[in-house]
Amino acid sequence: MNPEKRERVRENAKYLRNVRPIDPEEVSEYVEGQPHSAVVRQILREEAVSLGLVEREDGTFEPVSDEPIRPTFRGVEAFPERYASRVSDLLAERFGPDWHRGESGDRLRETIRKLKEDYFRNNPVEYDETAALGYAIYHLPDNYAVVQYVLHELAEKGLLDRKLRILDVGAGVGGPALGVHDYLPDDALVEYHAVEPSAAADVFERMVSESGRNFHPTVFRETAEAFEPSAAADSDEEDSAAYDLILFANVLNELDDAEAVVLRYLDSLADDGALLAIEPADRETAIGLRRVERAVADEAGAATVYSPTLRLWPGERPTDRGWSFDVKADLEVPDFQRRLDEPAGATGEFVNVDVQYAYSTLRCDGKRRVEFAADPDRSAKMAEMERHVTNRVDLVAVKLSHSLAEGDRNPVFRVGDGSEETDHFAVLTSETALNADLRTAEYGDLLAFEQVLVLWNDDEQAYNLVVGEETIVDRIPAPA
Known about the structure:
By secondary structure, the chain is an alpha/beta fold. The protein has 3 domains: about 5-65, Arc Repressor Mutant, subunit A, CATH 1.10.10; about 80-365, 3-Layer(aba) Sandwich (Rossmann fold), CATH 3.40.50.150; about 380-475, CATH 2.40.50.140. The chain is about 30% helix and about 20% strand. It has helices spanning about 5-15, 25-30, 35-45, 50, 80-95, 100-120, 130-155, 175-185, 200-205, 260-265, 285-300, 335-340, 435-440; strands at about 55, 60-65, 165-170, 190-195, 215-220, 245-250, 270-280, 305, 325-330, 355-365, 390-400, 410-415, 425-430, 445-455, 460-465, 470-475. The strands form 3 sheets. Strands 3, 4, 5, 6, 7, 8, 9 and 10 form an 8-stranded mixed sheet that branches. A 5-stranded mixed β-barrel has the order 11-12-13-15-14. The longest helix has 27 residues, at about 130-155. The radius of gyration is 25 Å and the shape is globular.
C-alpha cells in the first residue's frame, strides 16, 4: 500500500481507538479504493507499536491497557516442547535427522566442550553456525527459565507495564527473548530489540519466528559497542527512544569494557525502567558481574541496585569478592540434550538443566526491592565486624545464597549488608522457631538478626555469624 493510504489507515486507527475496537473491515471502508481487510490488518500489525495497539483474538485492535502486569508466574518446570521442536528442526536441517550421531554428533559435542572451557576460563567466544547451535542445545533451556525469575521480581511489585520497549544486548540464540515472551501476558504490547552480530542471530530469528501477535521482535546485527539505541526509535511518543527494560544476559563477560558499555546504555533507559544483568553462577562470571555492578552503581553513581545486593548503609559500598548467585529447581531434560548425550555414554556431560545464576537489577529512579536504611544505634555494620569478634550483636543483612554446607548439618548462608570488605556467612547451628527464617527465607530477602555470635573463620578468611538457640532471625518483608 502506498504511503498516503497507509497514513489514512493510521489516521482512522487513531480516531477509532478512542471510540471502539478497531475493525480492519471498518477501516477499509474509509480508505480510498477500499483495500482488502487483510491488507489493513497487516498495516495495523506493523504500526501497532507506534499506535499503542494490541490485537485481540477476534482480529480487532484496541489500545494497550495502562494497568501494570499482574503476574501468575509459579516457576519454570520445563523448556516448552514447541521451542524444543524448533531446535531439533534447526539441527536436522543443518546436519540431517541423525544429527546427534556420527561426525555431526561428535562435532557438536566437541563444540559444547570448547564453549564450556572458554566460559570457565573467561576466554573470548566466537559464534559460527555450529557454535550457535551447540549453544542452543546446552543453554537455551536455562536461559529461558532464568530471565523469567529475574523479571518476576519486578512484576510482583507492579513495576512492569503492559506496554514495554525492551532491548536485549547480546541476544544470542533467543533464550531470554523466549522467556520474556512466555512470561508476559498475551495483552502486553512488546517492542523487542535484539542486538546480536554473530551467527547466533540466525538461530534467534528462527526461534522467535512464531511469537505472539503482540510481541514485535527486531534483530540488529551489530556489536554491543557499535549499536546506537537512539537510532531504533519507532513510536509517536516523545520518549520513544527510552527502553523500559535493558537486558544483558550472559554477555558482560564477553565485552572488553563492560562497565563503559553498561554506562552508555543506561542513558537509553526510561526514568522508571530497569537494567537486568545476568551471568552464569560460576565464580569468575558471577564475580565479574558484581565488579560491573559496583563500578556503575557505587563508583559512577549512575544507578541504584534494586536487587539483590542491597546497600543498607548510606554512603557505604561492598568490597568483598561478591560471589553470589541464586538457585531454582532443575528443569526437565529436553529431548535434544538427551539425544546428544546418549551416544557419548549418557553421562550427563551434555545435559544442562541447572537453573543457577548471578544477577543484578539496576534502576535510575532510586527504587529498591526493600526500602531500608540501617540504624547504627541498633545494628552492627559488617565493615566494622572486626571489633565485634567473640561478641553477640544485632545486625541486618541480605541473604545471598542457598545453603553452602554439604548435607543438612549446620546450614551455611552467605549474607551481606552492602558495607562488607570480606565474606560473611551465617551458620545455623541450632534451628528454633525464632531463627528458622534464616533457612526458609528466599535468596535476596532482608533479615534482622538479634544476638548473633560473631567469630572469625581463619580457614575461610571470613566472618561466621553463628545462629544458635539464643539468636532471633526475622525476615523483613518487602512492601507489597
